[in-house]
Amino acid sequence: MIKVLFVDDHEMVRIGVSSYLSAQPDIDVIAEADNGRTGVELALQLRPDIILMDLVMKEMDGIEATQKIIDSWPDAKIIIVTSFLDDEKVYPALEAGATSYMLKTSKASEIANAVRATYHGQPVLEPEVTGKMMMKMRKQNQHAPHEELTTREMEILLLMAEGKSNQDMADELFIALKTVKTHVSNILSKLQVQDRTQAVIYAFKHSLVK
């Protein structure tokens, strides 16, 4: 049996979902709590297999409760069950240590399946939550164009900002003029600008030039 603790301040939600879950042959709702503080106490006392956690509750919200449980019991498996999909709720809840994230609009059977999946180590996220996480990851992985420049290309960009010609740069860096031209071409391409002037403007705009 998968032992479940349900923490939610909406009595009707608790009754409805708990009744459905307890009717399953492999799930047993062993306790309920109507606030985060009591939820933390019961979680650490009973050590259920799964904790269903609401987010907005009196006394202590679900994010803080999740964090306190994880701090004392890192292996706890917590499924957020909420009505909220905004970034201010999703990311903090997952960062606090929640394993899965479900919406209260989900069918009871979907929550039951999420309990089983999470119990077996398979996190379950609402499709919209997955989309949000992917967007966040993409943004985090996006680099500023100048971060793609090599050390030599950065040197040349800074010399360009000083007004040096290609020949001046070749002489100063002791490299062939053809090599300088190749570097300049690469710089324009990586910074996604059309000419040297725009490259210099980019350098000043991004505080690359002191």
Automatic annotation (TrEMBL):
PANTHER family listed in its UniProt record: TRANSCRIPTIONAL REGULATORY PROTEIN YDFI (PTHR43214:SF37), TWO-COMPONENT RESPONSE REGULATOR (PTHR43214)
Domain Response regulatory: 3-119
Modified residues (4-aspartylphosphate): D54
Keyword Transcription regulation tagged: yes
SMART domains: HTH_LUXR, REC
Pfam families in alphabetical order: GerE (PF00196), Response_reg (PF00072)
HTH luxR-type domain location: 142-207
Name of the featured protein: DNA-binding response regulator
Subcellular location: Cytoplasm
Origin superkingdom: Bacteria
GO terms classed as biological process: phosphorelay signal transduction system; regulation of DNA-templated transcription
Family matches, as InterPro entries: CheY-like_superfamily, NreC/VraR/RcsB-like_REC, Sig_transdc_resp-reg_C-effctor, Sig_transdc_resp-reg_receiver, Tscrpt_reg_LuxR_C, WalR-like
CDD domains: LuxR_C_like, REC_NarL-like
PROSITE patterns given in the database record: HTH_LUXR_2, RESPONSE_REGULATORY
GO terms, molecular function: DNA binding
Organism this protein belongs to: Bacillus canaveralius
GO annotations of cellular component type: cytoplasm
Subcellular location, principal: cytoplasm
Keywords of this entry: Cytoplasm, DNA-binding, Phosphoprotein, Transcription, Transcription regulation
